[in-house]
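Table S7 (text form). Paired inputs.
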Amino acid sequence: MTRIQLRGDLLVKAGDVLMFGDSHLQAIPGPRLGRAVNYALGGETMERLALRVVAYSSVQTASYVVVMSGRNDLAAGIHPQIIEASLIRVLGAIPLETPISVVAIPPGRDSSDGVQRRRETNRRFESACMLRKGCHFANLELLAEPDGTLNAKFDA
């Protein structure tokens, strides 16, 4: 899929919005959002995204970049600190003048340990984002029940 995306990347116009992440973001139809190109891949980890994002030349001319990944890293048992380091590498691949939104890992049907790991990772994402000019962190905790699991009305 990355090879197909990279072939299409040559056609991306300067000023387009790019979306990178996992299945949560992949499900959003980029063309319905105007000049947005959806490069999200189901199963993506932040670690793989850090390796992949550097190959897209459109990153250098994008007007905005959206990043949403990390749940698959947590599912693989990766420590939140390692996931944060991967996010920092992703942010480093994007020009400093390009605004970015980092979207939090959304609540799911997690165990109490899973909720804590997700929340820790999201705190780390928010901190990393705060250190970068033009970075906005979209916290999704408002979708959670008090115990940290996904509120049923948001489960589709």
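Next pair, protein 2 of 2.
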Amino acid sequence: MHVNLILRTNDAAMRTAFFRLAPRWRMTDPELSVGESHVLVVDLRTPVQDKWLNPGRGWIALGETPRHFHWAAEHGATLFLMWPCSPEQLDHALQATEQASPVNAVVAWPNNIEWDREGATIKKGQVLINLTPLESDIMALLWGRRMVYTSPAQILHHVWRGSIATEQNVYVYIRSLRRKLERMPDHPCILINRYGMGYRLAPVCQITEREELADAR
């Protein structure tokens, strides 16, 4: 059975990625499919028209910055995916939206990682990892500041909110998150840091000489 898919993008590479999901998913002309059952996917890196979005019907947002994520959340996206992402993640997202599953809180990362903000869980492949409330708060802060580094002092200020704690508490929780996120926690490539600047989440696992990856603090 074919499923109609409307993809709003000007990116040829993105269209190619979706075509690889054939034959289950059938790309359709947006202007000819208004009255048909379909799954809508919108690339937020290109201009978006509000008339495309139906509040009563789920849709998938694709983007690459925190601004894209916040826009998608404000406009009722069923699911937000970081781009680029794997064909497996695309197919999972399309199936979830088609079935109207309650996945609106899920942020899917490359490297086969999904973070559920509301459920405070991370899914790595088939493994479900639970986060503590403070770990989840740190993830939320680092996600919102994904394009910049966040210092231990900033994490302390925003997460502990004046509670009795020190930067040593931050280091303890960062190490705990790395044990849950990383294949090699002592050589992180997802929750990375740069000496003197702090931490940030890297959506694509790339180790470079410029990152101080060995410093587990």
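The first helix runs from residue 12 to 19.
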